[in-house]
């Protein structure tokens, strides 16, 4: 804050020097008070643009003051108005230190920009007050706009640098266009105001303030609507993702469901045929599962399925897949895995199931699992599933609680694709 206070102090010294060197013109206290209030109002009426942040209407008040009162009085008015306005940040919860630092910085920048631009306007023969447009006046107005913009952006860049922040692009087309329009509006406002009687000029000023306020309100409403649209879009995206997740997830176990498993199998077959990759598919079934539901309740059966699913997930690699295929049946995809390695994984899964305890239902309740395993050898999805299913039933017929391998048939040898 000390640096910003020193900057404001330096700008006040410059203003005092300019007041001593340049005739400030006749001083009307009511005019000074009126423009001070008008400047505060214009600064407060900000238009919030979604891509460019807050855009203030202060340029209109600043340069209308130059065109009516001259650059010296206008610079004092706007320096003090910009100093006072940030105090309202306290209402938004900002600290007094931050509010004062903003006031000092804004006061210095606005005072110097208005002073520099206004003095150039006078030097080029710009009339005060401006009562009509001429070529000389338009050239002076254009020069005032350019000089004020350069001074303001240079000081703003320095202030941002002192705070370790990056400033906006001073050549941003939107900001430049809006600033030029502000000077034009200030000139039009001044010319019209100077040709009206006192009563009509007061009414005109009031209508002008209402228009600025409406633009500011429109900006706030637009931002609220855009925030609402973003929130609704984000919520819709989340709900869509949730629905998508529900369509491929089994509610009871949290595993992928049969539909997802069939889609994933088709994708894996396509990759295997295209890139020559190997993979294995297994179908597993919990042995005597109906007896668990009949003898210990369906709650026990549901809990058994949940614990089995958790055991599978802890044993498998991230690239492999397990899904609940229906009831107590599960399907596995072992990506880029040969039959021998897949068999070792299935044996590990079978042992993990055997270790599961359900003592809260019965200490005698034991789980076991039979597995049918098949390696891809050019099959279609249904052929590969049928081979794994036949191997599963062979495991059941051989006494259960085991892994049974399926051998490829002649008609399922790898197909040759052109």
From TrEMBL:
State one molecular function term (GO).
Answer: diguanylate cyclase activity
The EC number(s) given in the record are: 2.7.7.65
Protein keywords:
Membrane, Transmembrane, Transmembrane helix
- Residue ranges annotated as transmembrane are 60-79, 100-124, 130-152, 202-221
The answer, when asked if Transmembrane helix is one of the entry's keywords, is: yes
Residue span, GGDEF domain: 277-408
Annotated coiled-coil positions are none
Name the coenzymes or cofactors required.
Mg(2+)
Keyword ATP-binding included in the entry's annotation: no
Q: Which reaction does it catalyse?
A: 2 GTP = 3',3'-c-di-GMP + 2 diphosphate
Q: Which InterPro entries match?
A: Diguanylate_Cyclase, GGDEF_dom, Nucleotide_cyclase, Rev_trsase/Diguanyl_cyclase
Q: Which PANTHER family match?
A: DIGUANYLATE CYCLASE DGCM-RELATED (PTHR45138:SF9), REGULATORY COMPONENTS OF SENSORY TRANSDUCTION SYSTEM (PTHR45138)
What name is this protein filed under? diguanylate cyclase
Whose protein is this, by species?
A: Abyssibacter profundi
Q: Taxonomic classification, please? A: Bacteria, Pseudomonadati, Pseudomonadota, Gammaproteobacteria, Chromatiales
